[in-house]
Amino acid sequence: MELSHFDKAPPIKKLSGGRRKVAVLLLSAFLVFLFIIFLFLAKALLDTSAIYHGVFIDGKNMGGYTKDRLSSYLEDYYNGIFDGITLTISSDRFERNVNVSDLGIGIDSGTMAQKAYDIGRKGGILERLAKIGRLIRHSEPVELELCYDTDAFNHFLDQICRAVYQEIIPSNIVIMEDQVILCTGISGKEADRQQLKNDVIAAVKTIKPAKITVPVIEGEIPPIDVETTLITLNQSPVNACFVKTSRTTYEIKSHQMGRRISREKLMEVIHYVETRENKEYEEILLPVEFIFPETTEDMLKEQLFRDTLATYTTYFNTNSQNNLNRSINIGLAAENIDGTILEPGEEFSFNKIVGPRTPQKGYKIAHVFVDGQIQDGTGGGVCQVSTTLYNAVLRANLPVSERHNHMFTVGYVPLGLDAAVSYGYADLVFKNTTGYPLMISAWVTDNHSLTFRIRATNDYPNLRVKLASDTIRTTPPTVQYIDDYTLPQGEVKVTENGSTGYVVDTYMKIYNGNVLIGEEKLHRSVYQMLPRKISRGAVRISEITE
Hints:
alpha+beta, disordered N terminus, 13 helices, 32 strands, 30% helix
């Protein structure tokens, strides 16, 4: 069928080959132009120093800010906010309000500005452009960054930790004179410093006031050591004892009560402590039995030096220079001995205590026996001190291990009861065998007497000592005449009276009341005879008158 002219399409004019080329070139140029514009705009967008729009901080769009401007803005902005925020720090012991600006916590504006700037600047061109495009539709926040590693913040944390800290106090036992108390322990506490730090930082980041409870680590009370406690409580009593601190001083070491508690009773108390609901501090009286010692401090004080075992007194005179010097020497030696304490079993040595009798110590020259003669020597008269002490020692029934009689008899004690001493040669030595401390007292009186007293504790008050001497042999003094050419012929003068020689045995008798229970020979004393010396005149009267 034939088409009408309406049905016929107009003929299409085909471009010539040249015109088509021009069209393609124009289109390509346009596209290139558009691409160049795109590249120019993309480069300008990608190379900008400003933060891209859609980057938000605290709900505010930071687009258009440079890093430096944003950093400065954030510094001012948050410092102003921090000035108005208060944190409340509390525990069971305190509550403290502190301003954030005083904590030493600040804004890390540089890090935040950098993070804001870095958004949209990672990856290739297309990736970056896509990210920038998405920011327009979906904003991206930058979290708050803080600076908190400061001395001020660390100091604040240290203060809180110290305020919270409570030392663990273990259970302990208090032992008194008549009771024993178990003091239950107290649990300890310490702040969890790291958690507290994290909590404070998290609270600051909320940008609003907050209350923070200090996190606490509990410290448990260590369990009671049963075995150690039993050893501590179960103790035997200890007697008070005498302690000599020097030759003349002493102290009394206090007694200790004995204690006893059974394991069963102790475990009952421990079970109660460990299972009680209330863990508060408590003082619990322990069922401890107390045991008295045989000797308490008061008993020992009453017992020490309680009894006088013996006293003895001798006499001297000062009617001559020699006797005056003797009295001085007697006083010095007695003073050295006075107050001497002997422990049980301890020996007394006269020479060790008195020491050398020298002029430097104040001793004077007086008569002494030397080589069968009476001569002057330093310390004359000291033998009266040793003799007086010896007689007190015998009457106290103390054993003497060294004693010497004089060369000649002395007039201040009976025969056989003297005790001569000479430093380095002859000593007086005896021992304390009483079983108790012993004290020797010595004193010189104005009436020219010397007394020794020996005190200790006498367990046998009925015992008495009597001394007796038996003369074995007597040697009368011979007479020795000495020519004296200062005297007229026929005139005589006694220059030395002389003394009788003796051999004497000394005995000790011990009585229980009036009953003789023991007798022993102490020693034999041999005294030399001292000749009577008479000077006779050897000059005729005529020779004197010529």
